[in-house]
Amino acid sequence: MNDDYLKLGSGYLFSEIARRVQAFQAGHPQAKLIRLGIGDVTQPLPAAVITGLHAAVDEMARAETFRGYGPETGYEFLTAAIAKRDYGARGVSLALDEIFVSDGAKSDAANIQEIFAADCVVALTDPVYPVYLDSNVMAGRAGSPDASGRYDRVVYLPCTAENGFEPALPARPVDLIYLCYPNNPTGSVLARPALQRWVDWARRQSAVILYDAAYEAYIRDPEIPHSIYEIEGAREVAIEFRSFSKSAGFTGTRCAFTVVPKELEGKDADGQPVSLNALWFRRMSTKFNGVPYVIQRAAAAVYTDEGRRQTRAIIDAYMDNARIIRQGLEAAGLAVYGGRNAPYIWVKTPPGLSSWDFFDKLLNDAHVVGTPGAGFGPSGEGYFRLTAFGRREQAEEAVGRIKARLAL
Ligand code: PLP
């Protein structure tokens, strides 16, 4: 077996949350819990997507329009829409074979490390979306964990209120850096000058930035870049992950894509340049056989005029929840971050309360379930994550209860 799997953390966060919620419910069967911990969307697929899906299913029923295996990296009707609507509209020009359609940003963010050397040094922001760390632990790249769960070969970049949740450039040489903006879990974004600093640093270091933009659709501030390729020089140093999960409700439908520009090169053992686009194509065509035709048609429907209007309305509703939660918690006297360009609200726990203490307090006093920040990494201690993916009434009731019942 692969011993590196034994070095993984216990995945204890969500099972421990479930255990505590179950114990509370057993003791308080009448309590009406509001769950603001989930990172999953709740609104149904937009009507335009459903229409696209139905039409594609009917095509599969006729011999003349039936599809078998498709192109491994995606049908052109989808990659062309992505290139034009997501990138061209922002002044970024992509060739269609730089776009790799996949079944999820999670799989791509986890699998991308395969094309890099086993001894690459990886930097991660802390707190972090756990997939980046765990996939490198499985690959043997992270080293061994210490008592606090930190791996000895990983460079951790703390993101706290003190540095405005903006990671400092690594103090030692690093080969790969995962950046996620808008950020899960902190809800923070990177302004253009900050992202330019990262791109310039990566060019100097010959490092590769793995840029997770799964939440780009939630950006409201016109100054914030949606894609790292809006930054000069990024095509030489960055891979970008996008997803229809949070932008169009595809968490259960599954469609995403990854961009690997042709300029992006690594070095082989002899120091010769190697195209990462070619390696990722080889990897995908060997281990993946494409996203279902009907799902790609559904994703393409997101780019129609109705699709764009409908997805925008859904995101607006989630962002209204984010505003309600953010303003409500601020009125309750809490320090609140995020929630302006992201569906995540990151709350500083009151003095003297750890993130698990605050979890228990919120559960017991307000019957609201969130996620303790410590579950996302050591620098998440002292913070708490709430999400905007519920219904508006839930957001309103949750902040009402927190204001009324939490003596802070
Ligand atoms: N990237 C980040 C930062 C996420 O938070 C998530 C889901 O929560 C994903 C990727 C997963 O996206 P997908 O549903 O496309 O696999």
Structure overview:
The protein is of the alpha/beta class. It has 2 domains: 3-44 and 306-405, Aspartate Aminotransferase, domain 1; 51-304, Type I PLP-dependent aspartate aminotransferase-like (Major domain) (Aspartate Aminotransferase, domain 2), CATH 3.40.640. The chain has helices spanning 12-27, 47-60, 76-87, 105-111, 130-138, 192-205, 245-248, 276-287, 293-301, 305-331, 355-366, 392-405; strands at residues 34-35, 99-102, 122-126, 154-158, 176-180, 208-212, 238-243, 256-259, 265-267, 273-275, 336-338, 344-348, 368-369, 371-372, 383-387. The mean pLDDT is 96. The structure holds pyridoxal-5'-phosphate. Residues 39, 104-106, 109, 129, 180, 184, 212, 214, 243, 245, 251, 256 line the site of pyridoxal-5'-phosphate.
